[in-house]
Amino acid sequence: MKPNTKAYLALAIVCVVWGTTYLAMRIGVSTFPALLFSGIRQAIAGAVMFAILLAGRKKIKISRGDLIHQSIAGVLMIALGNGLIGWSERYIPSGLAALVVSIMPLYVVFISYITGVDRKSVNRQIIGGLLLGCTGIVLIFRDNLGDLANPDYLAGIAVAFVASFCWAAGTVYIKQKPSSSPTFVNAAIQLSSGGIVLLISGLLFEDLSQLRSVSADSLWALAYLIIFGSLASFGCYLYALERLPAGLASVYAYINPLIAVVLGYLILDEKITWITGLAFITIICGVYWINRGYTIHKRKLQQKTI
Predict the structure, then answer these.
(1) CB atoms < 10 A from the CB of 271, how many?
(2) 174-190 b/e (C-beta count within 10 Å ≥ 16 → b)
(3) d(CA 251, CA 230)
(4) What are the helix (H) ranges across 56-123?
(5) Handedness of CA 129, 81, 172, 3 (dihedral sign)
(6) What is the C-alpha end-to-end distance of the chain, expressed in Å?
(7) Residue 141: inside a domain
């Protein structure tokens, strides 16, 4: 199988499985301290991944620079990105959290441009996609004006936006300096570093008395997220990210929110309004035009080299 084919297959797994993780996180954090829940999930996944690598008798070689680089990416994407999304789902529906996260490709373009990492690829299609994405954000707030009067709900929405931005920052950061270490070594470091930060945060800042009433559903959700949400999918994400453009690797944002919204509606009875649907379509169209812009830019570069 060609490397690009494997990368697209890995991205397809991410598209489907990560769409289900929002529901699992919502169920998990309903009776479990949110940061501690995510910390246990990611730390165990990182430890298991290291164990698998060692069991395969593969020498884990990584430079100090790569270790620091991957650890910073892990804190950005795993602790501040995924961990904060789990926290936000204590207060907002899983489908809404997924919809907020779906604007992540807009952040990738914005951060890449502001930091000077990638300014040459910005074209009319990408600008149009950004405008559509911003319109979708306005619609999200328009659809939740009444709920925003609730401080917990407002905090959940705000934290979800921050989490999405941090994940995008991690995505751009890790693309700046390709690692010489194997993909799954990088994944293990990122999961472990992010998990450790979340564990420490949970132990320091959360009410641990909630652990006395953890439900079986939360524990099953934790197991699902460790195996599928972290071990299987995150490795696939990094594999795709290393071999595909950052904008294209974020295409999972097309499918994740749709799966999350539908599952939230069917299983948790979360509401879906026509404005929610319009926001979803608008943001997805924005993501489409952003990725189309990257494709057009790449094609022009290839034509110049011929």
Answers:
(1) 11
(2) bbeeebebebbbbbbbb
(3) 18
(4) 64-74, 84-88, 94-101, 104-114
(5) negative
(6) 26
(7) no
Q: Are 143 and 273 in contact (CB under 8 A)?
A: yes
- For 289: left if phi > 0, alpha if psi spans -120 to 50, otherwise beta; the answer is alpha
Tens digits of residue pLDDT in 260-297? 888 888 898 888 888 888 888 888 888 788 777 777 76
Is 143:275 a contact under the CB 8 Å cutoff?
yes
- Compute the 3-state secondary structure of the chain and give helix, strand, coil in percent, each to the nearest 5: 80, 0, 20
Tokens of 46: 């990182």
The tokens of 153 are what?
């709900």
Q: Is residue 286 part of a domain?
A: no
Helix (H, G, I), strand (E, B) or coil at 295: helix
Q: How many domains does the chain have?
A: 1
Rg (the chain; Cα; Å): 19
Q: Does some domain include residue 21? A: yes
Structure tokens at 172: 């751009």
CB 163 within 8 A of CB 80: yes
The pTM (predicted TM-score) of the whole model is: 0.84
| Closest C-alpha to 81, from 159, 189, 133 | 159
Q: 3-class DSSP state for residue 39? A: helix
Residue 133: inside a domain, yes or no? Answer: no
Range of the domain at 57: 3-120+151-269
Determine the residue type at 241.
L
Q: How far apart are CA 104 and CA 127, in angstroms?
A: 15
Give every CB contact of residue 147 below 8 A, 6+ residues apart in sequence. 153
Closest residue by Cα to residue 159 from 102, 118, 101, 115: 101
Q: What is the pLDDT of residues 61-106, one digit of tens each?
A: 778 888 899 999 999 999 999 999 999 999 999 988 988 888 887 8
